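wait is this the right file?? whatever heres the structure
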């Protein structure tokens, strides 16, 4: 049996809770907004989907979809590198089982199935913004995406759903204490 007489833990060999929280918050808060001139690691720089700034993060992006049908526009956001988000889009365009991951992939698969054509996609950056901050309790990234969707001039071209405007910010989940793990093996 363990009791206070048989088990001893030294408080001097562990960090106190305040230091653990401060270190965790400092690591998360150090996320910076990138400039548009971020480097590109594409093998063929001419074929870079974002014209040489594919490694940008914390960005709201736009995709123009052109095909034989009227042009469509899709807005999205990427907190991590945009290139990672782009590869997820490509995966959903390539494999049918991921066809309903986004409204963009649903539309691309609709064109593939009904018209038997692959649309041309043009990607661009709309705006860089800061992700959710535990200090301000706001996610400028999600807010700018919602603002761009609301204020887009031709709503008939828009692929985004209006229900996206009422969704909760998914970036604040990383600040929950349930996601915080303490490493005692330092």
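ok assuming it is, sequence goes like this
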């Amino acid at each position: 049996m363990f009791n206070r007489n048989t088990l001893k833990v030294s408080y001097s060999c562990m960090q106190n809770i305040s230091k653990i929280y401060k270190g965790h918050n400092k690591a998360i808060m150090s996320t910076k907004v990138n400039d548009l001139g971020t480097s590109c690691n594409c093998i063929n720089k001419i074929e870079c989907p974002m014209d040489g700034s594919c490694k940008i993060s914390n960005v709201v992006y736009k995709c123009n979809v052109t095909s034989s049908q009227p042009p469509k526009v899709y807005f999205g956001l990427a907190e991590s590198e945009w290139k990672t988000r782009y590869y997820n889009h490509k995966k959903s365009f390539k494999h049918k089982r991921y066809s309903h991951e986004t409204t963009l992939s649903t539309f691309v698969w609709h064109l593939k199935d009904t018209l038997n054509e692959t649309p041309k996609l043009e990607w661009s950056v709309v705006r860089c913004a800061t992700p959710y901050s535990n200090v301000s309790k706001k996610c400028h990234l999600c807010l700018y995406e919602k603002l761009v969707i609301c204020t887009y001039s031709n709503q008939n071209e828009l692929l985004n759903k209006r229900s996206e405007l009422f969704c909760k910010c998914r970036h604040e989940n990383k600040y929950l204490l349930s996601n915080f793990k303490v490493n005692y093996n330092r």
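The chain has one domain: 47-177. so i think its the right one actually
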